[in-house]
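Dear Dr. K.,

Following up on our conversation at the group meeting, I've run the structure prediction for Glycosyltransferase family 31 protein from Neolentinus lepideus HHB14362 ss-1. I'm pasting the input sequence below exactly as I used it, so you can double-check it against your construct before we proceed with anything downstream. Let me know if the numbering doesn't match what you have in your notebook.
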Amino acid sequence: MTLALGLMPATRSTPRVNRVDEYEPSSGTESSETPSRRSSVYYPRPRNPFIASSSSPSNLLQIPSRNPTPVSDYYRHHPSGVSSRSVCSTATNTPLPSRSASPLPHFLASGSSSACTSDSESEPYESASPLLGTPRGPWWREDRRRWWMFGTPTRRRRRRGFSWWRRLKRGIRKIVQHPLFPSQPITIILTLLLLTILGIFITLLLIHILNPDKEPLPWRVYCSTPSPYNSERISLVNSGVHIVPPVNEISYQPPSFPPDNLDLLPPAGILIGVFSLDSSFERRMLVRSTWASHPRSREGALDGDGGNGTSRTIVRFILGQPSGHLERRIRLEMETYNDIIILPISENMNSGKTYAFFTWASNYAYVPPYYFNTSVPPPNFSYSNFTSSPSPLAKHDPLLARQDSVLKRPKPWVRPDFVVKTDDDSFVMLAELEARLRVELYNRPPPANNSTSTKLHAPRADVSVTSQSSLPSPPGIVPPADPALTSNDPMVYWGYLVKHRFMAGELYALSWTLVDWVARDPVVRTMTSGAEDKQTAKWMEKHPRANAVRWRSEHCWIYDHPRAGTVYSHGFLFPSEATRVKESIQGLFRGDEHMIDYFNNVSDSSSTQWFVDQPTPAQWAHSSVSTFNVRYTPPVPDLTVLQSVEALVEGSDMSSLREGSPMTPEFAWTHREGRRRRYENKRVGGTVVVHFVKKHVWWLETAYALLEGPEKSEAELQSRVDELEQAIDWDARADSDKATTQSMRKIHKLTHSSSLRTSATHRR
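The predicted structure tokens came back this morning:
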């Protein structure tokens, strides 16, 4: 039985459309407020048509029977031509409830029930329906037109494929969701701890692998080489040591330094540029009050030379442009001390400061002239005639220059023979530095075709590279007799040679000709960035006469502070200890004839080697003060301040003290060596530079060890007193014996005369 529900329009193809005001609150599940939440423009939705029975009139709507007309047939003949995919297959199996007609809620699919399968739920929003009109998705997925969008809004297509960010998120999600990933607080803490330990281990491993200085250097061998200017000829490897003999002799005694005629030569003109920072005011004051002005630094040990040797040596501090809050302070410091040079660059270390310094020196560097006559006339170089008025003097400038400045007509200043670059953590002994540079200034250069400069840069580190023919003449210096040689400007590159490649940056010197070329060469101008000491060595290789550049190295008397603990570190060294070191390993420079013949057959005669077939002995790098890579500790506790400084002297009794030793600190202090004995009664010949003086306390220790101290210690004075007393006693005893002898002679004479008289009496 069918129940007529109402009348439908005569035409089925045109469904009736209701507007918003035709909906009743009770006619469906959606409230009357729903349209107002959507959009100001409402798209009309057609009322859901009911399927008419075949037995009922066409103008009546009836509830379908058990076997109604299939929905697919209806849609197949419907004018909209919509496919039957949008209708659930079970929609016709459920009869409609007997209630009044009501519109289908807009959020339900047309002709579908709540029991639709997943296939119908997954239909795209683009599916059209004759009942719903224009398809619309949820409001949060609608492509609304925003204020920043122009033109017709277009639907953004979803990008296909995976971006790197999406892959990263998926990878992190997989890691986090892994069963082994920590999720509890205690496991998270332990995991972070293990990762931290692993990171530290990897960092230390990389530092160890990349660190080229893994073993202490054999400084004792450096101080025992045949020539103090060719210690780079010794090369150490794991399997042994290769040593180049200086001459074809089984035994060779190296010449001593300084040469006997050193003080007879005119002093060298030296400008020392101390690289400093605008904030390092205290360090500059330490330099001014110690090695830049101290008499023992400028005159040498013992009685010195009155400052004649360093009368042409001046010290200046090199700074970049100071910071804004320190500019006024630096200006006042310049006006007070007259020893600061500000370069027109920003402050840096490896970005062109060294090149800017040499450029400034080529234009404005001048040093004092010769103030006294020597037995040897001053040399005549190409730059000797360049003069300038005296610069403002600093308080630590040479005494002779300050005395000349008060005259009405002071002597003009001249170009320096050497320009030295050093750091403010280097303690420099001026007299020692000037003596060695003076030797190089007047030394005969080797032949150009046998120069050592090209041979010092051999790629192999296990073979000595300097040939006998390239060795300089022994330091018994004789000025060149040929006037033509004086016109050849010296080209000297002096310092501490590192791995046969460059001079270490704590101090190196360039002769004036090299400085002038560096400032004007266009190729060098493009090579200003990088490690400054390595860059300077590369400049020397670019010189048009690179084979004529003399590389001179000083390995024995340039070292790091004893407390530094680096590969270059050992105790404060003096000539007396260096002599004992030479005597202890002098056997290294003596070989049997069989060994020499063997190496003459396997190698070129110009690179003959002596080989010590044993691993590098630890004694060659042994120091009585410091140990490589170990923090320094005093030998025994409770030392006084002066005793602790004495314990930093290499080879001293104080440095050899240990717990339980029978020798006490008081005995070691009393029997220490005085300055005269340590310098072996010579003015120079000791430490040139102590580097890596990073702390002010270390600086004061170095100043006391190298600049202070008595000429003779208490034990030496007492020994001298004992010698005088012994001499007096000997003289007194000799006088007493002489008086006794004379008395005996008188007695004997008197006795003899009386016996003669007695004999004469008996004869009578």
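Two things stood out to me. The mean pLDDT is 75. The first helix runs from residue 71 to 77.

Best regards,
J.T.
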